[in-house]
Amino acid sequence: MTASVAVHFPLLSLLLWLPLGGTLLCLLFRHSGNLCRWASLLTTVAVLCLSLWMAFQSLGGNGWLFYEDAAWIEPFGIRYMLGMDGISLLLVLLTALLQVAAILISWQQKEHPAFFYALILVMETGIIGVFLALDLVMFYLFWELMLIPMFFLIGVWGHENRVYAAVKFFFFTLAGSLCLLLAIISLYLIHGGQTGEYTFALEALRQTVLTPGTEMILYVGFMLAFIVKVPLFPFHTWLPDAHTEAPPAGSVDLAGLLLKTGVYGMIRFAFPLFPGAAERSLPLLAVLSLVGIFYAAWVAYAQTDLKRVIAYSSVAHLGFVILGLAAWNQLAWEGSLLLMINHGITTGALFVMIAMISDRAGTRELEHLGGLWSVFPNLSAFFLLFCLASLGLPGLANFSGEILVLFGTFKAQPLWGGLAVAGVVFSAAYMLRVVQSSLWGESKVLQRSDDLGPREWLILIPLALLVVLLGVYPAPVLDFLREPVSLLLATGGMP
After folding, report:
1. Confidence (pLDDT) at 56
2. How far apart are CA 174 and CA 177, in angstroms?
3. Which of 198, 320, 348, 459 has a CA 20 to 30 Å removed from the CA of 314?
4. pLDDT for the residue numbered 97
5. Percent of the chain residues topping a pLDDT of 90
6. Which residue(s) pair with 64 in the sheet?
C-alpha cells in the first residue's frame, strides 16, 4: 500500500501524542479540579478536530492515507512505524468521539480528578497507538499501555466489588498479552534466522516462511490475546464484572473502544501474518461466535442490572462481528467493521445513559426503574432510541452492519447465516425487556431531579444523530472500508 496524502508534517505523531500532552497539563493543574476538567476536555476536542480534518483530507484516498516511518531502536530492528488506512481512520474517529463523551459524563468527578482525567488521556494514546502501529513492538507497547489506565479506573474509581473486577480484568488480559509477546518474539527470531534481517515490521514479517505446525502455534498465540479482548466465548467472563464495577467513563471506553482493539488485531496482524492457520480456524471462529451470540443473549435476558444487560449484549454483538470475519468475503467484512463502529457508538451511548439514569434514580436495577418516561421524558426518549438501535431496528445504526454481515454470511455459509438470524430475535427480546421494565408503567423512582441538562444534551445529540445517520446512510463509512478490506482479503492468502 502507498500513501495517498502527501503530508510532510507528522500528523499521525501529533494525533498519537497529543493526549499525553493533555495528561501533563492535568498533572500540572492537579490542585485545581476545574482546570483539570477543562484541560482534558480541550485535549480530547483537539484530537477529535484533528482526526476529522484528517478524514476530510483523506476523502477519495487509497492505500495508506497517512504514513510515518523512522529508525528507532536499530540494533533490534525496531522502527517507529505508523500508518492510517480507512479502517484505522474510522476507529481513531470513534476513539476521539467517545473520549469527549467520557470526559463530559465524568464532569462532576471529585475524587482525585487530576489523576482520573490523566488516566483517560493516557488510555486514549494507547488506543490510538494500537490502531496506528505497524511495528509489532510498537503495537505491543501500546496494547499494554491502554490496559494500565483501565485497571486503575476500575480498581480505584469503581463500585463495591471494584478490586475483584480489576484483578480479574488484569489477569485475563495479562495472560493473553504474554501469549502475544511470546509469539511476536518467536516470529522475529524465525524471520531473522531465515533472512538475516531481524525486524518487527509487519510487512517484512509477512514474508516469513513457516511450517503449518509452527504457523498454527504462533497464530494461536496472537489470537489468544485478541479473542480475550473481543471477548469471544468462552473468554468473556471478565467483561460483565468489569463493566458492572467500572465508573461511567470506564464503561464507555471499555465497550466502545477496548473491545474493538481485539477485532482490529485479528484483521491487521493475525490473519495477514498467518493466512494458512487463519483459514483452518474459520469454522471454529464461526462456532464460537454463534455460541456466544445465543449464550450472551440468554444470559442478558436474565440480568437485573442494566450494566450487566448491556455488557452481555456486547458479547452478542461482537459475536456477529467475528461471524462476519469468519465468512471471509467483502460484504461480510464490510458489515462486520461497520457493525463494530456502530456498536461503539450505540453501546457507548447506552453506558452514558445508564450513568444518567443511575444518578437520578439511585439504582441500576430494572425492578426499581419503572415509569421513567413519566418522570424524565427527554432522557427516556434518548434511551429508547439507543435501545432500539442496539436491538437492530431498521433505520438505526446497528441494523446496517448486521444486515451486511447476514447477507455476506449467507453467501459463504447459509447454515451460519440462518442460525445468526435467530440470534437477532434473541437480542430483540432482552432489549425490549429493558425498555418495558425501565420506561413504562407506574413510576418507581423515589428521587426527583431535573430532566436532561445542557451538558447531557451536548453528549447525547451528536451520538443520536450518528445513530440515525449510520442507519439511514452508512455509505460514507463503507467508502472508507471498501478498499482496505479488499486489500486485506486479497493479501491475507485466503480463497
Report:
1. 93
2. 5
3. 459
4. 96
5. 68
6. 3
Spell out the SS3 assignment of 103-153. Answer: HHHCCCCCCCHHHHHHHHHHHHHHHHHHHHECEHHHHHHHHHHCHHHHHHH
CA 494 distance to own-chain centroid: 25
The pLDDT of 210-231, averaged and rounded, is 94
Instruction: Flag whether pLDDT at 471 surpasses 90.
Output: yes
Closest CA to 342 of 467, 258, 255, 465: 467
Q: Which distant-in-sequence residues (6+ apart) come within 8 Å of 123 by Cβ?
A: 145, 146, 149, 150, 153, 253
Buried b (16+ CB within 10 A) or exposed e, 13-50: eebbebbbebbebbeebbeebebbbbbbbebbebbbeb
Distance CA 458, CA 453 (A): 9
8 A C-beta contact, residue 382 and residue 286: no
Question: Quick one: average pLDDT of 206-222?
Answer: 94
Q: Are 114 and 248 in contact (CB under 8 A)?
A: no
Are 182 and 275 in contact by the 8 Å Cβ rule? The answer is no
pLDDT for res 447: 58
First-last CA distance in the chain: 21
The one-letter amino acid at 110: K
**Hey, is 73 helix, strand or coil?**
strand
For the chain, what's the residue count?
495
Which uninterrupted H or E stretch holds 89? helix 86-105
CA distance 35 to 363: 31
**Cell output for 240:** 460483565
pLDDT in tens, 91-147: 999 999 999 999 999 998 888 889 999 999 999 999 999 999 999 999 999 999 999
Neighbouring residues of 286: CB distance < 8 A, sequence distance ≥ 6:
322, 323, 326, 327, 413, 416
Alpha-carbon torsion angle 269, 273, 279, 281, nearest 10: -60
Tell me, what's the pLDDT at 493? 38
Average pLDDT, the chain: 90
Q: Within its chain, how far is the Cα of 86 from the centroid?
A: 16
What are the CA-CA distances from residue 7 to residues 132, 173, 326 (Å)?
16, 37, 36
